[in-house]
Design a protein that fits this description.
The structure is a single chain. By secondary structure, this protein is mostly helical. It has one domain: Orthogonal Bundle (MetI-like fold), CATH 1.10.3720.10. It has 12 helices and 2 strands, in the order H-E-E-H-H-H-H-H-H-H-H-H-H-H. A two-stranded antiparallel ribbon has the order 1-2. Strand 1 and strand 2 form a beta hairpin. Helix 3 runs parallel beside helix 7, helix 3 runs antiparallel to helix 9 and helix 3 packs across helix 11. The longest helix has 35 residues. The protein is globular, with a radius of gyration of 23 Å. Keywords: Cell membrane, Membrane, Transmembrane, Transmembrane helix, Transport. This is Lactose transport system permease protein LacF.
Length: 288
């Protein structure tokens, strides 16, 4: 037994070292730096001054508000659309593999590249989206340059980019549902809607819980989409700033790593708290 344990630890050692060096150590280092001020090569202990700064900074609270709103709106909307599209392809479409590949392509494409394309689609003057809206005699807002539309633009883009991963995972979950459930339901004359709500959805609860967790964490870490859509800025007047963009700005642009790390610690706590609540909620739903 001892020999096997030694071999097991030997095989696990590279992973443990990798996780410790690239995951655990940065978290601990960020926590320590949040109590320090100065440049990276000459940091001094300043206790809670960094936390006092961010809690009194309106820009920080705007970033947190935008991030929370983005997560609360984009995640459920994207997941609902993903479930509908996955169920439609699973039950109605014959060549599922082709459509799965098509939907998955945006996931393996650079977010920056997609963001550049969407920047032209969202353009207020010659963008494709406004062209279609004008053709339908609907209001055509300035998606990029209007501060009031910045968050809406990010949400639309976020919903679209998250569909790929969600649909592929949901399709895999749908294939694992025992087809005998649907056969028995057909024997009793169950409609498509009844089969969906009483068979499909209960079987998808674990997968939905997983996707909710992944999507919420990704939503709270949104940065690349903002950078790509607004050409390296956080929208007009920082109207599209998010928590990670605030951290990047304080660390890289302003040059206050202590403030950036304090914001990082706060964001980490928020993500952990929201993820905990979400998992508790999904456990209650799954247990019913």
């Amino acid at each position: 037994m001892k020999t096997n344990q030694k071999k097991a630890w030997l095989f696990l050692a590279p992973t443990i070292i990798f996780v410790t060096f690239f995951s655990i150590y940065p978290i601990l280092r960020a926590f320590v730096m949040s109590f320090q001020s100065g440049s990276l090569i000459n940091m001094n202990w300043t206790r809670l001054s960094n936390y006092q700064y961010i809690f009194h900074d309106p820009e920080f609270w705007r970033a947190i508000r935008n991030t929370i709103l983005y997560a609360l709106i984009s995640v459920p909307v994207a997941l609902a659309i993903s479930i509908m599209l996955a169920w439609f392809m699973f039950s109605k479409v014959k060549h599922k593999s082709f459509f799965e590949t098509t939907f998955f392509m945006p996931y393996v494409t650079s977010t920056i590249a997609i963001g550049i394309v969407f920047r032209y689609i969202f353009n207020g003057e010659y963008g494709l989206l406004n062209f279609l809206l004008r053709a339908l005699h609907l209001p055509a807002p300035n998606w990029i340059d209007d501060p009031a539309m910045s968050l809406t633009t990010i949400i639309i883009f976020g919903v679209w980019t998250s569909l790929a991963f969600n649909i592929v995972i949901l399709m895999g979950a749908l294939r694992n549902i025992d087809p005998n459930y649907y056969t028995i339901a057909d024997m009793y004359g169950a409609s498509g809607t009844e089969k969906f709500w009483h068979i499909t959805m209960p079987q998808l609860v674990p997968t939905i819980a997983f996707l909710l967790t992944m999507n919420i964490i990704a939503a709270f870490k949104i940065y690349t989409s903002v950078y790509a859509l607004f050409n390296g800025q956080a929208g007009v007047g920082n109207s599209a700033t998010t928590a990670v963009f605030y951290i990047y700005n304080k660390f890289q642009i302003v040059g206050t790593p202590g403030v950036a790390m304090a914001a990082t610690v706060v964001l980490f706590i928020i993500i952990m708290f929201v993820t905990f609540l979400q998992r508790k909620m999904m456990k209650k739903i799954g247990g019913r």
